[in-house]
Design goal:
Layout (H helix, E strand, L loop, with lengths): L18 H17 L3 E2 L5 E3 H7 L5 H6 L2 E3 L5 E4 L4 H10 L2 H4 L3 E10 L11 E10 L4 H18 L4 E7 L6 H12 L8 H9 L13 H5 L10 H16 L5 E2 L11 E9 L13 E7 L3 H4 L7 E7 H12 L8 E5 L5 H13 L4 E2 L7 H10 L4 E5 L1 H6 L1 E6 L10 E5 L3 H7 L6
Parallel strand pairs: 1-5, 7-8, 12-13, 12-14
Antiparallel strand pairs: 2-4, 3-4, 5-6, 6-11, 7-9, 9-10, 10-11, 14-15, 15-16
Bound molecules: adenosine monophosphate.
Length: 434
């Protein structure tokens, strides 16, 4: 027997019918993000490894443990992108975008790669929909991107997504805060894993994200960064909250929210799925969106001083939720045309193609076969109407069209439509009967 293959662990095939949810969500995103003034960008799925080390940070799970990194044939260290903000910032700088426009709003959709432990809603190839706004420090920009997320969840039909909000300050008071944090964790150094010790030394704030049991008490009692941020950031954060209230966007202050990446400053936020009743379909992978400001990133990567704010949503998780909450609405043909052996079959097929090319959802069974079998196929694809096209119909230039979606016990409904009148009739049926 020949070998059969399986997809690489943690990487999923996205197939019909679920793909319809992906497409619907992506369609809503394109429209809504466009209306908010965001244009799509597509960057390569691989980048110079150093880009992620510099931006995301060496002592983070992503860069330390999860990147798919390889040496290419030119001896370069390349990494599959684990996130979209650093590649977008690289493209923004490399293409000199700041020279031609003072304000830039971008969005992207695409696969990201992290070598993670898998569970529901956590994969090694997953998809993010993200946005980046460069050039505005004003709190209005923070609120615009948050409002975009809020409206997006509403439009795709996912309720119970709670906005968690915090501020990390502009960075000026961070050394003092880190010193405070180091003092706090010092007595726990002995019980730390080598990994946590490294975080202690190199990136102390990461300890607040640690899952190590021995550290949980220390994490719970750790000083909050919000208490030590600079005055300017306090005002900025107050303005963000005031505007959110004005827009009717509810939020919860979350003093523990520091996020996993190094480049965040000032506002940070997450949207977390917290259903009020029933099971949580995402289990512990409930964060559907993470974002915030990264006012220093563009400059740190060699670009101009440009404040920026953005977010990334996990599409896999949103698709799971939409499927659970709303089910899959499959696209279905309006009309299915049955065919017979004989010279008029070519005319039937030509009619199907002509109607499709005119913009109608019309289907047929290319296997031909017996008419009842074709009708079964029409049912299977949930066609709204069915008509046989044989020699009689061909001669009479008229189809007898049956309603395939009758209520149980309802009488048969058949309409006669002249071939010439089919486009007009299909137009009137484009809202298919339920
Ligand atoms: P992050 O870039 O880690 O802030 O992630 C932003 C969002 O992407 C998260 O809130 C998740 O919804 C999603 N996400 C992150 N990692 C994964 C993963 N391994 N599998 C699926 N979704 C993920």
């Amino acid at each position: 027997m020949s070998k059969t293959f399986a997809a690489v662990k943690g990487m999923n095939d996205l197939l019909p019918p679920q793909i319809e949810i992906w497409q619907r969500i992506e369609g809503i995103a394109r429209k809504l993000f466009g209306r908010y003034g965001f244009s799509e960008v597509r960057t390569p799925i691989v980048e110079d490894t150093a880009l992620f080390v510099r931006s995301v940070g060496e002592v983070t799970d992503i860069v330390g443990k999860e990147m798919y990194t390889f040496i290419d044939k030119g001896d370069r260290s390349i990494s599959m992108r684990p996130e979209g903000t650093a590649p977008a910032a690289r493209a923004y700088i490399e293409n000199g975008v700041a020279n031609t426009e003072p304000l830039t709003r971008w969005f992207y959709m695409g696969p990201m790669f992290r070598y993670e432990r898998m569970k529901t809603g956590r994969y090694r190839q997953f998809y993010q929909l993200g946005a980046e706004a460069y050039g505005a420090l004003d709190p209005a920009q923070d609120v615009e991107v948050i409002s975009l997320c809020h409206e997006f969840f509403k439009q795709i039909g996912v309720p119970d997504v709670v906005l968690h909000l915090n501020s990390l300050g502009d960075g000026s008071t961070r050394p003092a805060y880190l010193e405070l944090l180091k003092q706090h964790f010092l007595p726990f150094l002995e019980v730390m894993s080598p990994e946590a010790k490294l975080a202690y030394e190199k990136n102390t704030m990461r300890l607040l994200d640690s899952k190590e049991a021995a550290l949980q008490e220390a994490i719970a009692s750790a000083p909050a960064i919000l208490d030590s941020i600079d005055e300017g950031s306090k005002q900025h954060f107050a303005d963000v909250q005031r505007l959110l209230i004005k827009l009717g966007i509810p939020f919860e202050l979350d003093r523990r929210l520091v996020r996993g990446l190094d480049y965040y400053t000032r506002t940070t936020f997450e949207f977390i799925y917290e259903p009020k009743s029933g099971e949580n379909a995402l289990g512990t992978a409930g964060t559907v969106c993470g974002g915030g400001r990264y006012d220093r990133l563009v400059h740190e990567l060699g670009g101009p001083e440009k404040p920026a704010v953005g977010f990334a949503m996990g599409l896999d998780r949103l698709v799971l939720l939409v499927e659970k909450l709303k089910g899959i609405e499959r696209a279905a043909p309006t009309l299915f045309i049955g065919t017979f052996d004989g010279p008029e079959r070519d005319d039937a097929i030509a009619l199907v193609m002509k109607l499709r090319n005119e913009g109608f959802d019309v289907d047929f069974d290319p296997r031909n076969g017996k008419l009842p079998k074709q009708k079964e196929r029409a049912s299977k694809v949930n066609a709204a109407w069915f008509a046989a096209y044989g020699v009689n119909e061909h001669t009479a230039r008229t189809l007898k069209i049956d309603n395939m979606r009758l209520a149980p016990g309802a009488p048969k409904e058949t309409v006669e439509v002249a071939l010439d009148a089919l486009p007009a009739w299909l137009n009137s049926k484009s809202k298919t009967p339920s």
